[in-house]
């Protein structure tokens, strides 16, 4: 799997999934998610997954949505508008 | 119906005490000899007025009555005595509302004592200081060696792999200065809104100014677990018209609100209004449960770069001062003057901290108080939402 293209994703849990977090995390790992971080206070798990396995994550019970990770970039420190 | 020259009708409105409509109707007769019909009786409405001396609108607890001078005096006396008659007012003529000419907003330009931004949000007039309120600023970190913050309580954490909290960019130090900086710095005008708030500096953007959702969400979780009522996020990514908002951030923000944490984020700087281009509110400020802040200048005009509401989603909720904003900057410079919705956002976050301290409001109640007390501006709501944030 390590040669396959991977996507970094956010997994947001439904309230029902948040109530049984360890079980859902195990389900996500079984579906191919390499977990970076579990943020239990907000019900979000970040991680990486093979591109062709993204849809399988969405099928895990208790998952509300899978979204790609966005990156942010500020202007240079010397810019007038930041 | 006679019409007086002073905009009144010659009739009177009599407010009755709560749950005293029947007693009040009787009192009108006893006190002033006015026999009023009540809409509680079949067939009585305001059209019945000509046939009687008054009409009691029983659902409102208000009577509209004809009264001569002597009767009006008698009613006025009844107001100050115990009984069912609570208030007497002259009935007024009302007209369809015509648009008034927009008033020219006063310009704030004297920065000898306080920045124009502090004055525009009325921070210098407020007795609130932010004391006891934790404000998390998720940005490029903070200059922990800045001399104007030497006495302050500062918690910090870095969510950028391989980088310390120390701000190698400047943006985070500027934002923290506006939200929580001093009122009497060693030089220049006072620039901090909530100058006694507890500072929680979360580094989620690198010294090169870049970051990603993972670090930002970790920062939000850190703020929640530290019971910060206010999270200020002067960051965002460009969106295109029609883009949906992030379901992840929306869920996160709603869960944060439920735990007493309000997330305030920059609307974005992608507009070019001088060219007629208004860009949509960026990610994640476009989420309904995240408060999106646009920028105005010292003349209360919308900043040319400030993103606007262009879709059914992604509303600008409020505006703050965001043009030529003087605040702290890492040493050796110490101060810098820059523009952006990034600068407007910590003004709103600082005001949120003042309101949180003054009222005890948290979460959605804090959101409501911010919008309720905002100063309305003669500008499109799609650009400024409820208007300019105001200190309590």
TrEMBL record, chain A:
Source superkingdom: Bacteria
The protein, known as: Ketohydroxyglutarate aldolase
TrEMBL record, chain B:
Keyword Metal-binding: no
Family stated for the protein in its record: Belongs to the peptidase S8 family.
Keywords from the UniProt entry: Hydrolase, Protease, Serine protease
Name listed for the protein in its UniProt record: Peptidase S8/S53 domain-containing protein
Keyword Protease found: yes
Organism: Actinokineospora fastidiosa
Listed PROSITE patterns: SUBTILASE (PS51892), SUBTILASE_ASP (PS00136), SUBTILASE_SER (PS00138)
Coiled coil stretches, renumbered: none
Annotated active site: 139, 171, 342
């Amino acid at each position: 799997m390590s040669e396959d293209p991977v996507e970094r994703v956010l997994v947001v849990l439904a309230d029902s999934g948040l109530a049984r977090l360890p079980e859902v995390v195990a389900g996500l790992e079984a579906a191919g998610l390499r977990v970076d971080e579990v943020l239990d206070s907000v019900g979000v798990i970040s991680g990486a997954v093979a591109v062709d396995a993204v849809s399988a994550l969405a099928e895990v019970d208790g998952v509300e949505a899978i979204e790609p990770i966005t990156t942010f970039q500020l202007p240079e420190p010397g810019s007038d508008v930041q | 119906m006679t019409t007086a020259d002073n905009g009144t009708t010659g009739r009177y409105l009599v407010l009755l005490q709560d749950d005293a409509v029947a007693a009040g109707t009787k009192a009108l007769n006893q006190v002033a000899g006015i026999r009023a019909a009540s809409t509680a009786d079949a067939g009585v409405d305001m059209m019945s007025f000509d046939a009687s001396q008054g009409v009691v609108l029983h659902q409102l607890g208000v009577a509209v009555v004809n009264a001569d001078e002597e009767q009006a005096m008698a009613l006025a006396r009844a107001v100050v005595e115990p009984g069912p008659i609570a208030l007497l007012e002259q009935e007024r003529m009302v007209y369809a509302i015509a648009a008034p000419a927009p008033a020219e907003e006063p310009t704030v330009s004297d920065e000898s004592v306080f920045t124009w931004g502090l004055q525009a949000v009325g921070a210098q007039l407020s007795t609130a200081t932010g004391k006891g309120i934790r404000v998390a600023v998720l940005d490029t970190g903070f200059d922990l060696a800045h001399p104007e913050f030497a006495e302050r309580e500062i918690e910090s954490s870095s969510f950028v792999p391989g980088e310390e909290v120390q701000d190698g960019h400047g943006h985070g130090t500027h934002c923290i200065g506006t939200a929580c900086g001093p009122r009497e710095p060693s030089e220049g005008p006072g620039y901090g809104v909530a100058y006694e708030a507890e500072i929680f500096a979360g580094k989620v953007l690198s010294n090169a100014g870049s970051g990603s959702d993972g670090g930002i969400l970790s920062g939000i979780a850190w703020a929640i677990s530290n019971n910060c009522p206010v999270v200020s996020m002067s960051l965002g990514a460009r969106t295109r018209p029609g883009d949906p908002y992030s379901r992840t951030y929306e869920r996160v923000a709603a869960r944060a609100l439920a735990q007493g944490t309000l997330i305030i984020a920059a609307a974005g700087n992608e507009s070019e209004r001088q060219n007629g281009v208004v860009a949509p509110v960026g990610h994640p400020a476009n989420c309904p449960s995240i408060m999106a802040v646009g920028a105005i200048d010292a003349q209360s005009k919308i900043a040319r770069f400030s993103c606007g509401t262009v879709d059914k989603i992604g509303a600008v909720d409020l505006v703050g001062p965001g043009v030529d904003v003087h605040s702290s900057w890492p040493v050796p410079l110490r101060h810098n003057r820059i523009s952006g919705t990034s600068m407007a956002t910590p003004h709103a976050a600082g005001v949120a901290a003042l309101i949180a301290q003054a009222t005890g409001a948290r979460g959605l109640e804090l959101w409501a108080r911010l919008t309720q007390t905002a100063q309305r501006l003669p500008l499109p709501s799609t650009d400024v939402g409820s208007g300019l944030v105001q200190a309590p």
